[in-house]
Amino acid sequence: MTVINPDIKLKNLFHAGDGRIPPYLAGREQAKKNFQDCVDLLMQNSPADQNMIIYGPRGNGKTALLRYLQEATLKAAGDKLEILWVTPSEFKDLAQLVGLIVANNQSLFKKALNLFEHMIDDITASANIGVASVQTGLNRSKEMLALKDLLWEKCRKKPFILIVDEAHTLHPEIGQVLLNASQSVRAEKCPFFLVLAGTPDLQTVLHQSSATFWDKSSVFPISRLSVNDAQKALAIPLESCQVECAEEVSMEVTGHAHCYPYFIQIWGSCIASHLVKTGSREATMETLSKVEGEAIAKCSTIYIHRYDELNRMGLVPLANDIGGTFLENDNLPIPIHELEDTVRLSLQKLGEPATHETIQENMQKLMHIGYIWKISVPNETTKGVPLLCYEPGIPSLMKFVRGQRRSKAEMNVFLERFQNRTGN
After folding, report:
1. Where are the domains of the chain?
2. pLDDT above 60: residue 134
């Protein structure tokens, strides 16, 4: 058995932004439980209760969660079920999706050719991991029936889970056939489970494909972690490498990261690298002071990228005003109608139309890039009826956006502090 060098393990403990499973997947308990409950049904040769939707802003760990669920399921179930992971970039039309489903199964491949005669070239190319041209043929209803037959044939051998990541980029026509086929085979007790994951745009895309699919699925919004889960995401991996992590350290990092999973991984990576360099096995407040500049600099790359996105979309003035509203409210959730008032005033100040449509359009754009996020919070004044609110996607990003409007004198002070932190 190969023994891993403890320093190498510690140095490579945390992973930021590449979709890999973090060393400890904190939180997301309801989504984990729902997925496992559906797998349990599949293992009894029954369909999942509902299809599953995971959605939320970028950087909150949707792909990592899916990989965790996939890995845990395959480890427990072995070859008793099949999981296929795809993204819309792998299939430009239904034929290519069919090709991916039937790949490495000769009998199913032949059946697919019979069911989708009009798309033989496309299926052949996709099954061989090629690039096929877009073709048209049977109407959507007939394509749905053909896909339904294909899924049934596949599930007769063993239960089948289809995971579609980046589903917000799914073409509505392909989505319509896939969603309808999924609902139909599950209604007929086929052991099939469809899981879709994407950004907040996913809801709009699915409504274009099937007006009822969203409401008939188990939906799990994925945003920032709770404070407790964010602390665990840092401390538990370090402790697994025999590193003593003081509670004040995990609290301080959680505050800096605003419970944003991507930033937790960045801070964890910086701390781990510093400990390897110094040979220490204690993460202290002094450790944080040594890595603060590096961690802030790495987090700033996200700020710059998101700011550039806002700028390209012409949303910087609006984002600045919204950031100010949240900062005045200590970054706590703000009721939808109140933040819409902020958007209305901001648009009017810019001399742009402030209609209901333009307000909603701008809010949707801001949700798309993860600047704001819609949640429901308990509301005692309405006897338990949740209150719909917006919260910051990343509070520190709002502070960054606001900071770009500093005066020249303020900017000089800011740059001096930043250079002192980074040692440049």
Report:
1. 6-16+225-309, 29-221, 313-419
2. no
